[in-house]
Amino acid sequence: MYGKSPTRAVLFLLGLQLTALWPIAAVEIYTPRVLEAVNGTDIRLKCTFSSFAPVGDALTVTWNFRPRDGGPEQFVFYYHVDPFKPMSGRFKDRVVWDGNPERYDASILLWKLQFDDNGTYTCQVKNPPDVDGLIGEIQLSVVQTVRFSEIHFLALAIGSACALMVIVVIVVVLFQHFRKKRRAERAHKVVEIKSKEEEKLNQEKKASVSLEYTD
């Protein structure tokens, strides 16, 4: 009895130390927060996560939806080893799994967007023993046409600058081409004038020589 007590005490203390060294069990979720998409198109609801525990068969992913105009929360998608699509409701045949747990990706694809899809989509990931943590949220706005964002304006500005540079290069090349052509024409005219003058001098010399022979 006394011989076993020290061993149990050591194991107990070792367990406490290992528990203290184990990181806080909390899954961190990363989402784009805000998305905007055109009515009738498809969109990828991106959700990635980080976890201290290795990803295994115990991993679960739950997607839910809260309408913007209010109402109860609705089920969107569930993943546990295999994906489970909704069998009824607004998202039936409109949502598919697009994640990869090995890459810490829990994203889904939503097809054929409708205006009543406006609202908040939540992504919850549990990877035991990491089961706590904040739930990821995405505010989705379905619009008739996408508004210009800063990225669009930046792309437009870069495209315009590139087009302007191309036009400037073309103008410079054409200017140099016509300049060389003018120089070539002037040089050709100078050569023609010199040739005519030399020919005229030769004719005058011939005429003067013939006159000398006549005398």
In short:
This protein is an alpha+beta fold and 215 residues long.
Descriptive key words:
2 helices; alpha+beta; six-stranded mixed beta sheet; 215 residues
What does this structure look like?
There is one protein chain. The chain is of the alpha+beta class and 215 residues long. The protein contains 2 helices and 11 strands, in the order αβββββββββββα. Strands 2-11-10-5-6-7 form a 6-stranded mixed sheet, with no helix packed on it. The protein has a 3-stranded antiparallel sheet with strand order 3-9-8, with no helix packed on it. A two-stranded antiparallel ribbon has the order 1-4. The longest helix is centred in the last third of the chain and has 65 residues, at 150-214. The termini are far apart. Mean pLDDT is 82; it is low at 1-5 and 8-22.
Uncertain segments are 1-5, 8-22
Report mean pLDDT, rounded to a whole number.
82
Order of helices and strands: HEEEEEEEEEEEH
Number of strand segments: 11
Report Rg.
41 Å
Main sheet, how many strands, which sense, barrel? 6 strands, mixed
Helix fraction by DSSP (H/I, runs of at least 4): 25-40%
Shape: rod-shaped
- Count of separate DSSP helical elements: 2
Topology:
Elements (H helix, E strand, L loop, with lengths): L3 H18 L6 E3 L2 E6 L4 E3 L2 E3 L9 E8 L6 E7 L1 E3 L10 E3 L10 E3 L8 E8 L9 E8 L6 H65 L1
